[in-house]
Design a protein that fits this description.
Elements: H1 5-36, H2 55-68, E1 76-77, E2 86-87, H3 93-105, H4 112-129, H5 131-142, H6 144-155, H7 159-163, H8 173-197, H9 201-205, H10 209-230, H11 237-256, H12 262-279, H13 296-321, H14 328-347, H15 349-363, E3 381-382, E4 385-386, H16 389-395, H17 398-416, H18 419-437, H19 442-463, H20 466-476, H21 483-490, H22 493-517, H23 526-538, E5 567-569, H24 575-580, E6 585-586, H25 610-614, H26 619-629, E7 640-644, H27 645-648, H28 652-658, E8 666-671, E9 674-679, H29 681-684, H30 687-693, E10 702-707, H31 715-726, E11 738-743, E12 747-752, E13 758-766, E14 772-780, E15 784-789, E16 806-807, E17 811-815, E18 818-822, H32 826-831, E19 834-836
Parallel strand pairs: 5-6, 5-7, 12-19
Antiparallel strand pairs: 1-2, 3-4, 7-11, 8-9, 10-11, 12-15, 13-14, 13-16, 13-17, 17-18
Length: about 850
């Protein structure tokens, strides 16, 4: 009889768990359905899949390269951030997972359609799978119903977790959330099992593997998940730090209550040792220590964590041996930590700086240009003002319930000392601090909100008798057929009403927001797609293999590009689109590379880059920036400049913010509606305004070569301000949403005219949209005149830009009563030839 009991218990558990597993599977399908609702905005045609946001395009670009060189992927990419290139700071695992699956499905030769389709669905799959570890964490903190409610809440969670796991948003964030949650789940289970079995270092000595087996296996799996998490996001040691801080708290609790702490040391050392071994092959020693991007930092942080567990275990034993009062443990622990920091500052200042600066980077509020990065701004501040609007958008009522639940957890930890509750409390507190610093971490906190809200809801349900119902179910149900009669006899109206109230108050607000937010996916609009496909087809090939893997240059050197290569200057938001859709090399990208400007003080030198180019107050200043981008004085940093109306309106402030010099671009004026901030003179003098608002008219070396279709934007309002305040005569109309300009030498048109005469050269330009505008320059003759003009009147030539925006006829030169026409060839424009009139 005794020998059969464990088997019967297992069978009983399986039978009792069957309804839960079915329910969790259904909830995961609900999560997947919500995330694929806007599929029509992703699969916009048979030939084009529109991925969301910015970074998803870069991930897909890496997937394409990985598949061409399988299984070798990129570590350095010279086809962005021209002329420096960029190291790949994304982890390799996310792209490898996509490549591995499509290689299997495609029998080793997956087509582009398969790659793009699976890539689009992948984040939705990851988002749905996150339901599973959330359920188990909830279950082991508060029971089955806590787990089920938590699973349901994460399935319908709105905000960043939804937007980053929705179809088409093929970025590593959904994988971050899944693997960080798996890491915390397995570590939590190992802690529960280790404490339950009361394992100790003496069991290692006696080789009691039966006792040690399950805690060690769970801790080892936690280490695997930690390594996988690091290989998805280099900043994953943040969660390693959370585990160490949890351990410090739990060590203190156990020491104060005269309990063994061996179990913590054993699972902690195992977890971080396995994680370190698995991450070590991916370390790039040349990247030093003071970086998150797969440097020695990842190994050193794991060694530090292992050392912390060893130290805390030894401290517990030594204080007990010396019969110190229990309260001395936290005092000695904190004191020695401070001593260790001082020692590190002396012997390893780079590590010390990293240890001190990292919390400020993660938890601190950004200023200057960094404050304009949407995902890096505080969730509690907008425009410098405190707000809870973003909190509601991301978590609905769950945020407020999570705060209440943390207080309830703290009370429970003080009474019961359960490690799973301590871990959830510490984990949640630090991710709450993280979203104070950067709202991007909201997709992490969604997991905490789901579990904490479920914990709160479960306590409320217990008051209405659900705990007794659950206990009775676990005692009585031996087969599936017994479930129906059990519910019929035991489920009461107060159970149903309390559950309905929880669903209405706790679940429905998030679900309602999720359904609103899952109607579209974002990403490049049709104007950008059209413009970049034109660029791909109509500008010279840079002469580099888009799918090749290139070696990084030696430290201090720049990549050896062929002479045919050129950059494309645009705002950093659009860099990955330019690279992946246009197959051209952006100067700036969403890694915040190539922005230029200043970081800490207005006293700094304004570095060349996108911010300094577009805010430049003259063509000469802008061209100097373009020339300074490339270290070779004979080469310019870019050949093409791409502007969109967002850069000319809403995003212009971000450009100036990165230079730390925002004064004068906007001014307050009295209107019928009161005082309003409108563009000022400094704005209209900027290179961005010259290009987009004024179509580049009057510029000597920049010509529009393509205009996208026209959108309904704020552009007419900006032109109205210029006309009213500065006596302009601009047509107050919308023009192309995206405009592409080319930087050229410009043909030199020279001639003679009476001294003192105002000489004007002009031409009517017809854009690719059939819109016309007048290009003109004027100067006062000193007996001669000279103009540098960027437009060819004779059309494009083979091998160069196949522009579809050009003059409708020859230039007209006029002064006094004289008018003359002059034709300019494309060769004249590209080579800077002199044309005498």
């Amino acid at each position: 009889m005794e020998n059969n009991k464990p088997d019967r218990d297992i069978k009983s558990q399986i039978k009792n768990s069957w309804p839960y597993m079915v329910l969790i599977s259904f909830i995961a399908l609900v999560a997947f359905y919500i995330r694929i609702r806007p599929s029509e905005s992703v699969f916009i045609s048979e030939d084009f899949i529109r991925f969301g946001g910015n970074d998803p395009w870069y991930h897909m670009r890496m997937v394409y390269t990985l598949l061409e060189n399988y299984p070798r992927g990129m570590f350095y990419n010279p086809l962005t951030n021209y002329p420096s290139g960029s190291y790949i700071h994304f982890g390799p695992l996310f792209d490898q997972m996509i490549a591995f699956v499509v290689m299997i499905i495609g029998a080793g030769s997956p087509g582009t359609e398969l790659v793009n389709t699976f890539g689009a669905y992948f984040p939705a799959i990851l988002g749905a799978l996150t339901v599973i570890p959330v359920y188990f964490i909830g279950k082991y903190v508060g029971g089955h119903k806590t787990g089920i409610i938590a699973a349901l809440l994460i399935a319908v969670a709105p905000g960043q977790f939804l937007s980053r796991s929705i179809i088409g948003f093929t970025d590593h964030h959904a994988a971050e959330t899944l693997f960080s949650t798996l890491f915390m789940m397995f570590f939590m289970l190992s802690a529960i099992k280790a404490k339950e079995k009361e394992i100790g270092f003496i069991d290692l000595k006696s080789k009691d593997w039966k006792k040690l087996k399950s805690p060690f296996i769970l801790a080892a799996i936690a280490g695997v998940m930690y390594a996988a998490f690091q290989l998805i996001w280099p900043g994953a040691p943040l969660f390693g730090l959370i585990i160490v801080i949890f351990a410090a708290v739990q060590y203190t609790i156990d020491h104060l209550n005269n309990r063994s702490t061996d179990y913590l040391g054993m699972i902690g050392i195992t977890t971080f040792l396995i994680g370190m071994i698995l991450i070590a092959p991916f370390i790039h020693p040349e990247m030093g220590v003071s970086t998150f991007f797969y440097s020695w930092f990842h190994v050193i942080s794991a060694i530090a964590a292992i050392g912390a567990f060893v130290f805390m275990s030894l401290l517990h034993k030594e204080l007990n041996r010396r019969k110190f009062k229990p309260y001395m443990y936290p005092i000695v622990l904190v004191s020695l930590l401070l001593v260790g920091l001082i020692f590190t500052r002396i012997v390893a200042p780079s590590i010390y700086s990293l240890a001190i600066d990292t919390p400020a980077i993660i938890f601190g509020i950004k200023t200057g240009g960094a404050a304009t990065i949407a995902e890096a701004s505080s969730i509690f501040y907008s425009g410098g003002n405190f707000t809870l609007q973003n909190v509601w958008y991301n978590f609905a009522v769950g945020f407020y319930l999570s705060i209440i639940a943390m207080l309830m957890l703290a009370y429970s930890v003080a009474r019961k000392h359960r490690p799973q509750e301590t871990l959830l409390l510490v984990w949640s507190f630090f991710i709450l601090l993280a979203i104070y610093g950067q709202n991007r971490f909201a997709y992490y906190y969604s997991v905490n909100v789901a579990i904490l809200s479920a914990y709160f809801a479960s306590k409320i349900l217990n008051i209405s008798g659900w705990e007794d119902l659950e206990n009775a179910y676990n005692r009585k149900i031996q087969s599936i057929s017994e479930i129906g009669p059990f519910l019929k006899n035991n489920l009461k109206i107060h159970h149903i009403l309390s559950l309905a109230l929880i669903l209405l108050i706790v679940v429905y607000p998030g679900y309602s927001l999720a359904m609103q937010q899952s109607q579209g996916t974002g990403g490049p609009n049709g104007y950008w797609i059209e413009s970049l496909l034109w660029m791909n087809e109509s500008t010279p090939d840079p002469g580099m293999d888009f799918y090749a893997i290139y070696e990084a240059p030696e430290k201090g050197e720049i990549f050896d590009y062929p002479d045919s290569v050129y950059g494309v200057m645009s705002w950093w938001d659009y860099g990955h689109w330019i690279e992946t859709i246009g197959h051209r090399i952006p100067n700036a990208n969403p890694f915040q590379a190539g922005i230029g400007g200043r970081r800490n003080s207005i006293e700094e030198e304004n570095q060349p880059g996108a911010s300094t180019f577009f805010t430049a107050q003259s063509e000469e200043e802008a061209t100097a920036v373009l020339e300074a981008v490339h270290p070779d004085p004979d080469k310019a940093g870019a050949r093409y400049v791409v502007s969109d109306v967002e850069m000319a309106t809403g995003k212009f402030y971000a450009m100036s913010a990165w230079t730390l010099d925002t004064d004068g671009y906007y001014q307050s004026v009295q209107t019928n509606a009161g005082y309003q901030y409108v563009p000022g003179e400094r704005y209209f003098n900027s290179m961005e305004a010259k290009l987009h608002i004024f179509d580049g008219t009057g510029l000597q070396q920049y010509r529009m070569v393509h205009e996208s279709p026209i959108g309904n934007t704020q552009e007419p309002g900006y032109k109205n301000v210029y006309n009213v305040l500065y006596g302009g005569s601009l047509a107050e109309i919308n023009t192309g949403y995206v405009k592409i300009f080319e930087y050229v030498e410009g043909a030199q048109v020279t001639g003679t005219a009476p001294e003192g005469e105002t000489v004007t050269i002009s031409s009517t330009i017809r854009t690719s949209q059939g819109r016309t505008f007048i290009y003109s320059q004027s100067e006062t003759s000193d007996g001669t005149y000279s103009f540098t003009v960027p437009y060819s009147t004779e059309g494009p030539i083979s091998g160069e830009t196949q522009f579809d925006t050009a003059p409708t006829g020859p230039y007209t030169i006029s002064y006094g009563g004289t008018q003359e026409e002059v034709s300019v060839s494309e060769t004249d424009v590209l080579e800077g030839n002199v044309i005498e009139v």
